[in-house]
Amino acid sequence: MNKQQFLNELEEILELDSDTLQGEEVLLEIEQWDSLAFLSVIAMADEHFDIIIQGDRLEKIKTVADLTALVEEHLSA
Amino acid sequence: MTTETAIQPMNFLGKRILITGASTGIGRACAVLLSQLGATLVLNGRNESQLEKTLSLLDGEGHHVAPFDMSDIDNLCGWVKTISKQQGYLDGFVHCAGVQITKPIRLFDQQFFDQTMHVNLASAMAITKGFRQRRDKNKPGAIVFVSSIAGLIGQTGNIVYGTSKAGLMSLTRGLSMELLRDNIRVNCVAPALVATEMAQRTQQELNDMQYQHILDQHPMGIGQPSDVANAIAFLLSDSAKWINAVTLPIDGGYLAN
After folding, report:
1. Hey, what CATH topology would domain B12-249 get?
2. Which of A28, A48, B45, B62 could be bridged to B40 by S-S, CB 3.0 to 4.6 A?
3. CB-based contacts of B182: which residues, under 8 Å, 6+ apart?
4. CATH numbers and ranges of domains, chain A
């Protein structure tokens, strides 16, 4: 999975149109970012990258770019 | 109270029991307890080295490990028959194998549904199919499924797992009637949160507040694997010979809260 595909997965979770996320968006300002989106991101990272993003770590994330950085080393070019 | 049964109500001497999911958690606790009660065990699990560890914890002799993929549904029946042929007559089985993945409905897909349902529910049916064939109907058989209170309550993000566990409860009732003629009892336990590797994973996936909320719903704290194993051993034993089709919550009062 590359960065764009990751963002597309995130858009799916947040029920946004494709290719709308740029990176600088603040998660708390996205209307659909709620506790279920939170759980969904953890499940998605586990399924696609075989990593567990710890709940407390994800809670400290502010932007979409921060979130991407969390899984960056697992993304392909 | 002078009978031997009253002195040792859960005596498994001379009985051979198959335990799935025996490599960790509740399955491992079951294996240890049933071996202490005299049973000879066949241990199934995904992780062979962990199964060997469980084996090293057992009392008594004659136990075996038998790894097999619980999602290989069409071959499970034959696998059970082979175990019976090679290791000896099975008096009972405990189905602890299961997978739990927290996923809200927005991430639902067929692969996720199939995997959870195959490992948690269809495997129970396939093993039962193998277990009941060519039995000596003079010998009582007993089955215990490990369900979950997730099958009795609503839990956010846990819908497919909860559905599979509710399915086990329904399966318990149906099989208990269908297998009367085979002299097999079928019961089920429904634990709340138990201190297992599965629970550790759940804790990692949640933030402190979310996990504390789960803990607060357990009036007596979370359970230990041995708390569930004790109930399973009872339901499996001849002491429970008039108990059939039951789903027993093992929840430290969770459902009363």
Report:
1. Rossmann fold (3.40.50)
2. B62
3. B132, B135, B137, B141
4. 3-74 (1.10.1200.10)
Catalytic residue among B89, B161, B211, B254: B161
Query: Per residue in B200-210, pLDDT tens?
Result: 888 888 888 88
Tell me which chain B residues have a C-beta less than 8 angstroms from the C-beta of A40: 103-104, 106-107
* Shortest alpha-carbon distance between residue A77 and chain B (Å): 25
pLDDT class of A53 with cuts at 50, 70, 90: confident
Whether the CB of A35 is below 8 Å from some CB of chain B: the reply is yes
Other Cβ atoms within 10 Å of A39 Cβ, number: 24
Quick check: B113 contacting A, CB < 8 Å? Answer: no
Substitution target in A16, A41, A56 with the highest count of B β-carbons within 10 Å is A56
CB-based contact B117:B73 (threshold 8 Å) = no
